[in-house]
Amino acid sequence: CLGKMEDVDKAITMSFKKINSKIFMIGKRKDELGGSLYYNLFGELGANVPSPELNEVKHQIYAITDCIDNKLIASCHDIADGGIAIALSEMTFENNIGCSVTIPGELSIEKLLFSETGGFIIEVYNSKTKKVNEIFNNHNINLELIGKTSKDQKLIINGAIDIEIEELKNLWTNGLRNKIK
Hints:
This protein is an alpha+beta fold and 181 residues long.
């Protein structure tokens, strides 16, 4: 992905910034695990590869960049390799800020957490959520409140994952594949 940034001072990172911020998900989770890192761990291929709707992705990006231009988003991370579980993990690492989230959907827990359907996770300070919602509504993009950041240095997702950030970092740094097999 390539783009021109007009004002580098508006750049944000993927790391959570503050305790008790709201966490939103952009992009519904779908049964798109085919060719994923998750299946690769188990020597499987899967059938359903991500199939993005380009017009929706365009509007997601426009909404996010409008929010960034107005300094409304604290952090943002794309949902890609490894799905939302990996994206959330990576957001906790730098500042050791945990989170508790519930990913909505009727898919199996593995598909909800590791589907590589595109999308984004954003952290928004409570005082800025109304304006963020307005911007996303103006772009006709669904913004799903999924949880909040927390002082507990843990990643908690749908009651299926409850793990200390330090343990996550260790697994990430030293090879998750070796720990699972």
